[in-house]
Amino acid sequence: MIETSGLSKTFDGGVRAVRNVTLSVRPGEIVGFLGPNGAGKTTTMRMLTTLLPPTSGTATVAGHGLLTAPREVRRRIGYVSQSGWTDPAVPIGDELELQGMLYGLSRTETRARTAEVLAMLELGGLESRPGGALSGGQRRRADIAFALTHRPVLLFLDEPTTGLDPQTRAHLWDHIRALRDEHGVTIFLTTHYLDEADALCDRLLIIDHGEIAAAGTPAELKAGRTLDEAFLDLTGRSLREEASV
Questions:
Q1: Residue 78 is part of which domain span?
Q2: pTM of the entire structure?
Q3: What percent of the chain is predicted at pLDDT more than 90?
Q4: Total number of domains in the chain
Q5: What is the mean pLDDT of residues 75-92?
Q6: Which of 48, 169, 189, 193 has its CA 20 to 30 A from that of 163?
Q7: Are 80 and 155 within 8 A, CB to CB?
Q8: How confident is the model at residue 148 (pLDDT cuts 50, 70, 90)?
Q9: What is the CATH number of the domain that holds 28?
């Protein structure tokens, strides 16, 4: 579903944010992308979602070349940023219908899909409620609903549970698992939460200073240690401490 080779990004001034990242994500996986602040997680995700052009390297995303067919990539992926999409003053049903029409769905198709994704994420009956009137968990699920309107095969989630309380986070994990298990969506997510990575992800990719430091299942990376200890060994930095700042 994702295949990269030597993907790199250098910003003006010679700042090398991502260096020769080579990774692979198989269809049907939930893959976690971990790293300290400034490690290159969001830069990599923005390149894979066509929002930022790479300086060098190649990638295939959802069956299409990142550089040669970016429009086809965008047709097949969903993306939820850290800041989300909900407008505090606009009913989420209206926003979802607009999203569907932007992707070329008819008004009838859009209304049917809006009802479908709202029910899928336990937001049914909230169509007329503006984003500003939703709880934190509801707002985050609405963000995911927007990304699912056009039925993407691959979903990118950037820090999907930041700022949520533990119970709401666990509830959102259930919805993320259901997207894969019941709807066949492949998921690539960044997170600062080691318990989230351990509980939710099939595989983990650890990035530090713009390079992939390690990859494997949570069990392989832990190998008798806690995930925080494994991360500290690999990068020299504690992700748990950074997540608590």
A1: 2-86+153-243
A2: 0.90
A3: 63
A4: 1
A5: 89
A6: 48
A7: yes
A8: very high
A9: 3.40.50.300
